[in-house]
Amino acid sequence: MNIILTGFMGTGKSAVGRKLARSLGMEYLDTDELIEERERSKIYHIFEKKGEPYFRKVETAMVREVSHLDNHVISTGGGVVLKDENIKALRRNGFIICLTANPEAILKRTERIQDRPLLNEPDPEKRIKELLRMRRAYYEKADFSIDTSNLSVEEIVRRIEGVLRKKDESCSCRPGGA
Ligand code: S3P
User: Fold this and answer.
1) Please, is 51 exposed, middle or buried when counting C-beta atoms within 10 Å of its C-beta (0-12, 13-18, 19+)?
2) Residue 17 is assigned to a structural domain of this protein
3) What is the pTM of this model?
4) Quick check: 73 and 17 in contact, CB under 8 A?
5) Count of domains in the chain?
6) What CATH number should be reported for the domain holding residue 12?
7) Ligand 1: does its nearest atom lie under 6 Å from the Cβ of 74?
């Protein structure tokens, strides 16, 4: 079983994913990192040179690939949830945890690193709010959500471990549960 981290940009998926994998003794993967390796190009260059539709195509192919793995913590790009086929593929062997955060926290966390083409706008706060509104229903499809606005990476990891423990307990109590 994989643990899939979804959520908007700046909600902590990569930092949390890395730490969670280490803590659970699982492998770690980040779909954006894999895309950059595969394309030999930074995400913002891919957007700039080939456009968002091309990026989304590569992203879906990558999601399909990683969904065949097992025992991995997989952090996904913030837009992965927008395609139903991505979520279906990831769910086949994955428990999906969505990290959320309020717009203020997202702005603070994304301001420092200017590599997010979708927020490269004169008013990034307005854009964040717009995108969050448009995407809310997609993020809500996760199996579990955690608001990370006021939590440290360590606290988020601990919460996820708690959620996983409860999930395992309830599975093993059910007759025939694995
Ligand atoms: C995107 C999020 C980014 C990256 C790309 C598009 C999105 O990933 O995939 O810039 O559509 O929300 P992070 O969520 O890791 O920043």
Assistant:
1) exposed
2) yes
3) 0.95
4) yes
5) 1
6) 3.40.50.300
7) no
* Residue range of the domain that includes 140: 2-156
Q: Is 30 in the pocket of ligand 1 (CB under 6 A)?
A: no
Burial bucket for residue 174 (CB in 10 Å: 0-12, 13-18, 19+): exposed
Condensed to tens digits (0 to 9), the pLDDT of residues 59-104 reads 999 999 999 999 999 999 999 999 999 999 999 999 999 999 999 9
Does residue 79 have its Cβ closer than 6 Å to ligand 1?
A: yes
pLDDT-derived band at 43 (thresholds 50, 70, 90) equals very high
- 172 within domain boundaries: no
Of 1, 28, 6, nearest in space to 87 by CA: 6
| Structure confidence by residue, pLDDT tens digits, 100-142 | 999 999 999 998 777 899 999 999 999 999 999 999 999 999 9
User: Which residue's CA is the closest to the ligand 1 atom numbered 12?
Assistant: 78
CA of 99 to the centre of ligand 1 (A): 13
Confidence of residue 175 (pLDDT cuts 50, 70, 90): low
Q: Domain for residue 113, yes or no? A: yes
Assess if residue 102 is contained within a domain: yes
117 in contact with ligand 1, CB cutoff 6 A: yes
